[in-house]
Specification:
Two copies of one chain form a homodimer. By secondary structure, chain A is of the alpha+beta class. In chain A, 20% of the residues lie in helices and 37% in strands. The model of chain A is unreliable at 1-41 (pLDDT under 50). Chains A, B: Its EC number is 4.1.1.5.
């Protein structure tokens, strides 16, 4: 009973702190950090991104940023490896790659990513949704909770799944820049039944499109760290969802010659959507 | 002679350093910070932005971020005041506002901005263009030097001008959200002849549109800090241009209720261009 009371006080206090600290639940007009401290402005909940989403979709597959540096900007996230050799998961400070063979391995600190986003994950809300949600139902459930349509959210889903379907791309050749939407037939799919693991992902607002991918975007990593990839479909069993509301984002564009000549005026909105979904519709 | 030799060595050394440090002139594929130091990744040349450009253009005029905090992220930049009451210039660590009356005043640390971008200005190149350039000719000259079309550049122009034409908007009422492109007739214009001062501005790449304004964007501040505003036209006399190549950018979206419900799916590209130019064409 004593423990329960203390826990309640802790939860209430934490809730109060969060309602002051998070723009998503704040009704004040002034940047929240000012309220608690007239000068502090550390912007703790920031999404750090290397690469430009529209560039990756359009064929900028050359890695330019080492995971060693990426990990300094976050312990949670997802991305694409150098030469598109699979899919990247950053979880609890470690970086894993699922290749097109399905093989899932830790990546070397010196290896390079062409596009990744990470944040230091601190849950500000924990949710326990009903069982048996498919991908669409899970996203609807999350939409009902994440009411700021222009908010940025890191989302960690932990637990048991009746089914998780993932995909990974095979590597491209050096200097190959075929747009990703033209290589969807090369994707390899993996169906995991009755599995246990983590979904690592984000819901990002529409204004971040082109530099990133708006809407939901998840990668999967099994508990045993022996399976993963970009989420195509799923059916939940017992899961717990943690939300980290983000306040800001930083983008570090590629430092490559190919990037300097890349045409960003081309509209790649449909390509971005079809690549995220894993197919044209 | 001795001084000249030393100066040459300094210039050569600085040039070498810059060619290693700046992605814009680097031909390597790895993020430059890695080359000099395996772990350092301070990303020194970052553009810090509060607010979303498309939001300001669409009517999000309520300030939410104090200049006191803004100055912690840069000593050079431009922006819009709370309620659109003029135009903001950040120069040598101080913040000035030119109102629609033409009055130019320092702003209070506690005042709020609805949209601003700043960086700590460190010139990596200094240029001395020919005299007598109008705005179009100046931008063509800069284009011939800033060859990375997807690069981000802070640009400081210092010197004498035969003419500088600026504009400033009058303040809106509380909670007024009329789109900026529908209020172009309220702009006040100021023609300054044979004046001396600074242009504070940026050239940003196309992929930053919607969150910011791509292309050139300059504000003016007179030497006496008694005149300024958003640049509409100009004719140069004796000027020197300093370039600061930027590596990354951070965006802090507004923490306001109005922002949470703002429709970013509407295409405001033409509105953004007409507001930057000061007219429909």
């Amino acid at each position: 009973m004593r423990i329960n009371s203390l826990t309640s006080v802790f939860i209430l206090t934490t809730g109060l702190f969060l309602s002051l600290a998070s723009p998503a639940v704040s009704s004040v007009n002034i940047y929240p950090a000012v309220k608690s401290n007239g000068v502090q402005d550390t912007i703790p909940n920031t999404l750090f991104t290397v690469g430009i989403g529209g560039g990756l979709i359009g064929g900028l597959y050359d890695g330019f940023y080492p995971y060693k540096l990426l990990k300094k900007h976050g312990d949670f996230g997802l991305g694409a490896p150098d030469k598109l050799d699979g899919e990247i998961m950053v979880f609890q400070g470690k970086v894993y790659k699922t290749q097109h063979t399905g093989k899932t391995i830790p990546v070397d600190d010196q290896d390079l990513t062409s596009f990744s986003m990470v944040n230091f994950f601190h849950a500000d809300r924990t949710l326990t949704p009903p069982k048996g949600l498919n991908k669409t139902a899970l996203f609807h459930y999350l939409d009902s909770v994440l009411t700021n349509v222009n908010g940025m959210y890191a989302i960690h889903v932990k637990g048991k799944f009746k089914m998780v379907k993932t995909r990974a791309f095979p590597p491209v050749k050096a200097h190959q820049h075929t747009p990703l939407a033209e290589m969807l037939n090369l994707q390899q799919f993996f169906n995991h039944q009755d599995c246990q693991g983590d979904l690592i992902g984000y819901r990002l607002p529409y204004f971040m499109d082109n530099t990133n991918i708006s809407g939901y975007h998840f990668h999967y990593l099994s508990d045993q760290k022996d399976a993963g990839g970009h989420i195509i479909d799923l059916l939940t069993d017992d899961i717990v969802i943690e939300i980290n509301t983000l306040d800001s984002y930083t983008i570090l564009p590629p430092a490559t010659k190919d990037f300097e000549h890349f045409d960003f005026k081309k509209n790649r909105e449909e390509d971005i959507k079809s690549v995220e979904r894993g197919g044209k519709n």
